[in-house]
Amino acid sequence: MEEAGAAVAATGEAELNWSRLSVSTETLESELEARGEERRGSREALLRLLLPHNRLASLPRALGSGFPYLQLLDVSGNALTALGPELLALSGLRTLLARNNRLGGPGALPKGLARSPLCRSLQVLNLSGNCFQELPPELLELRALHTLSLGGNQLQSIPADIENLQSLECLYLGGNFIKEIPPELANLPSLNYLVLCDNKIQSVPPQLSQLHSLRSLSLHNNLLTYLPREILNLIHLEELSLRGNPLVVRFVRDLTYDPPTLLELAARTIKIRNISYTPCDLPENLLRYLSSASNCPNPKCGGVYFDCCVRQIKFVDFCGKYRLPLMHYLCSPECSSPCSSASHSSTSQSESDSEDEASVAAHRMQKVLLG
Predict the structure, then answer these.
(1) CB neighbours (10 Å) of residue 101?
(2) Same domain, 232 and 284
(3) Are residues 155 and 212 in the same domain?
(4) In 3D, which of 317, 312, 330, 327 has the Cα closest to residue 363?
(5) Per the domain annotation, does 85 fall within a domain?
(6) Residue 262: enclosing H or E segment and its boundaries?
(7) What start and end residues bound the annotated signal peptide (predicted)?
(8) Which of 11, 54, 86, 145 sits a CA distance of 20 to 30 A from 238?
């Protein structure tokens, strides 16, 4: 442990750095106990403990008693299969780095985590490169988290309870097996960075347009063929990464169209002609139906639709270079128009409102990475 002692001396009293020393849990146990005893009579508090790339199979028990003021703990690159109860005693811990271990099985996280002081103190949690097949429910109770990283695991889905993490600013879930994005993800008001690359995602829910703080969205290397039109509402989005997706290369129209029912035709007439009505005139179910009307996005139409619409993929030019396929829902086939052949020119547009949308999109999105 002479090398460890030298490392400690070099980093100062506020940090212990035992990185890449290939020491075992037993060896560290005695050393940490000694350091803890030394500090009990000292005014100097240990704030950072770095133990990456050793041979740790479990957390040293001395963590629970000798380091009450610890703010950062790095145990990455070890052989941990569980984070034991010692973790719960670190009441002031703000950053926990435990990437590239063997975490993921039953008991990988300590019992009582959601009721411990860590629930209020932990802000950064990195569990990337482990073996989690699902997001542990305990993590969804850590309401103070700003950054959560679970990239390179075996996650199959994102639970709807992800919306519990109301303080989350950065969510990294790249390199998993996720197939769907839950709409509840849109209920994270502070989310700035969302990384979902290298998964198996086939579509993006339009609810993501509610992420008004989002600045970067990474969706490369998925199975996307289009994006919802609502993506243009992400007014603070600066970077959108889409490379490696099977994005369609030319305009596609959905030729299947079921005519609207008599109910919908009547409702469309009421809305389009602005026929007035009051709650006394109609049953409650019809009032709800009328309030569910959606405006046709074609500005030359002015129509509305309810249950019957035409799905259409339309390309919008970004920055005069990239053509991004967006999903539109039109009120009738007459509202669609054939798209001109694929071109790199920003002036080559369909006969609808592509030019207006292109200018808005180019202004809002600074980077669209397709290549």
Answers:
(1) 23
(2) no
(3) yes
(4) 317
(5) yes
(6) helix 262-272
(7) none
(8) 145
How is residue 198 written in tokens? 């290298």
Alpha carbons 328 and 311: distance in angstroms, whole number: 6
With 0.90 as the threshold, say if the pTM is over it. no
In the chain, the number of structural domains is 2
Pairing type for strands 322-330 and 310-318 reads antiparallel
Contacts 24+ apart (CB under 8 A), 90-93: 90/63, 90/64, 90/118, 91/116, 91/117, 91/118, 91/121, 92/68, 92/117, 92/121, 93/118, 93/121, 93/122
Long-range contacts of 100-105 (CB under 8 A, 24+ apart): 100/76, 100/128, 100/129, 100/130, 101/75, 101/76, 101/77, 101/129, 101/130, 102/130, 102/131, 103/127, 103/130, 103/131, 103/132, 104/130, 104/131, 104/132, 104/133, 104/153, 104/154, 105/81, 105/131
Q: Is the dihedral of CA 36, 42, 47, 51 positive or negative?
A: negative
Pick 184 or 369 by higher pLDDT: 184
Q: Are residues 113 and 231 in the same domain?
A: yes
- 332-348: per-residue pLDDT in tens? 877 764 333 332 333 33
Q: In the structure encoding, which two tokens stand for residue 25, read together?
A: 């849990």
Q: Do the beta carbons of residue 7 and residue 19 sit within 8 Å?
A: yes
Same domain, 27 and 133: yes
Tokens encoding 292: 């569910």
> Is residue 12 predicted with pLDDT exceeding 90?
no
- Reading the block at residue 64, the tokens are 């629970």
Which value, in Å, is the radius of gyration of the alpha carbons in the chain?
A: 27
Return the number of other C-beta atoms located less than 10 Å from residue 371's C-beta.
8
Q: Which 3 state secondary structure label does DSSP give 193?
A: strand
pLDDT in tens, 154-163: 999 999 999 9
Q: Which of 120, 117, 175, 123 is nearest to 147 (CA)?
A: 123
Domain assignment of residue 104, given as a range: 15-251
368, two tokens: 């669209």
Coil, strand, or helix at residue 204? coil
